[in-house]
Amino acid sequence: MTDRAPGFATLAIHAGAQPDPTTGARATPIYQTTSFVFNDADHAASLFGLQAFGNIYTRIGNPTNAVLEERVAALEGGTAALAVASGHAAQVVALQQLLSPGDEFIAARKLYGGSINQFTHSFKSFGWNVVWADTDDVASFEAAVSPRTKAVFIESLANPGGSVTDIEAIAQVARKAGVPLIVDNTLASPYLIRPIDHGADIVLHSLTKFLGGHGNSIGGVIVDAGTFDWAGSGDKYPMLTQPRPEYHGIRLHETFGNFAFAIACRVLGLRDLGPALSPFNAFMILTGIETLPLRMQKHCDNAKAVAEYLNKHPAVASVSYAGLPEDKYHALARKYAPKGAGAVFTFSLKGGYDAGVKLVSNLKLFSHLANVGDTRSLVIHPASTTHSQLDDAAKIKAGAGPDIVRISVGIEDKEDLIADLEQALGA
Fold first, then answer.
1. At 301, is the secondary structure helix, strand, or coil?
2. Of 113, 122, 289, 392, which one's alpha carbon is 20 to 30 angstroms from that of 298?
3. What is the secondary structure of 28-91 as a DSSP string?
4. Is-contact 342 192, C-beta < 8 A?
5. Does 150 reside within a domain?
């Protein structure tokens, strides 16, 4: 090996992985086991006391999952990562380390509908309160800060419209407030945007989407940037700074330094909440990541071609895709995602709600389902599905108005995708 820092494609294939020391297997084995044998009593005690790293029980860690964690951390430029069962699980585990009952976090209004539902309703049972802000108005984030604020949460490319968030500007707000910035980077993937490079302290993914890429495995991941000053936060984050009685009184930020948050998520969150990722799913997602740079570029190239076609179609009222020069987010896309504006975007139909429902029913090559980031092209009408729990005003604020259709453009031949849209719009 040379001293050259490996490029993105090299990391996507090799980061975290070595030939299996026992068998010589080149692909990462699936360690389909619940638990691991200790060397002796002292070894067991050191593992349980966090005095040594190693495997105990797959709910807490697994060698297959460890390769996935190291690879995603390398791609995102973080210090460490934790893989969990889903993107939603990643949000729960990450926020559990930061919030106590009565605490608040600020979240962007433009979010995946499932996240809006989770934040608005499910988190109430934990006593966690969400305060909404508008990514188009950075001042709204600053205005939302209160003494109870413990985090800021945004998406790099917002679901469903693919709008681009000014990460650096919102990072400045979070830094001024003394709280970590959490960025859901699912729609961009680190191939397009690395939020840590722009001020993010924590990065989350639904591994189900572009990282896995094939619609066959659910997973989530938490990436610790290693940038937040837990020591300087006083007692604001007791999970990180106070002695942990479960581990003989150690303070995680003192013991683990710039990867303390990832450790906290593992030994406090994953250990007790239990949303462990299956080693088989970790293997499938690892395999998907190997082709991430190839797929993402094809996704973006296809999406731009489809957006340009729809933008000229007489049945289409508007197209929201940051890759179009006239789009309001185009300048931000050129700044944050110069390789492409992503593969997920929305467009509105002149026929409104009924036209949207009709379109998704008439498409043949596009699959009508609730997912994004697949090799296959996907379509959904958010107002009747993913965002149906919101009233019309909230749907519009979230970028999912009644006339909106969301597509996730796959890696098929773009001509075939355009032909499918042509027949469906003319039906």
1. helix
2. 113
3. PP----SB---SSHHHHHHHHTTSS---SBTTT--HHHHHHHHHHHHHHT-SEEEEES-HHHHH
4. yes
5. yes
Nearest to 424 by CA among 378, 360, 370: 360
Domain containing 60 equals 8-288
> What per-residue confidence (pLDDT) applies to 2?
64
- Give the containing element (helix H, strand E) for 296: helix 292-311
User: Which residue has 């990867």 as its token pair?
Assistant: 259
The pLDDT tens digits of the residues spanning 208-227 come to 999 999 999 999 999 999 99
Asked whether the beta carbons of 125 and 182 are under 8 A apart, the reply is no
Contact 364, 423 (CB under 8 A): yes
Residues 6+ apart with CB under 8 A from 232: 178
DSSP characters for 145-176? --TTEEEEEEESEETTTTEEP-HHHHHHHHHH
CATH number of domain containing 299? 3.90.1150.10
Specify the CATH number for the domain of residue 80.
Answer: 3.40.640.10
* 164 and 29 in a common domain: yes
pLDDT digits (tens, 9 = 90+) for 365-397: 999 999 999 999 999 988 887 777 778 887 777
Q: Is 236 helix (H, G, I), strand (E, B) or coil?
A: coil
Q: What's the rounded Cα separation, in Å, for the pair 369 and 251?
A: 45
CA trace torsion 204, 206, 343, 130 (10° rounding): -60
Domain count, the chain: 2
Judge if 299 and 416 occupy the same domain.
Answer: yes
39-51 confidence digits (pLDDT tens): 999 999 999 999 9
Whether residue 212 is found in the same domain as residue 127: yes
The contacts of residue 159 (CB under 8 Å, 6+ apart) are 110, 111, 112, 113, 186, 187, 344, 372
Does one domain contain both 165 and 227? Answer: yes
Strand partners, 164: 157
Same domain, 322 and 185: no
Q: Tell me if residue 412 falls in helix, strand or coil.
A: coil
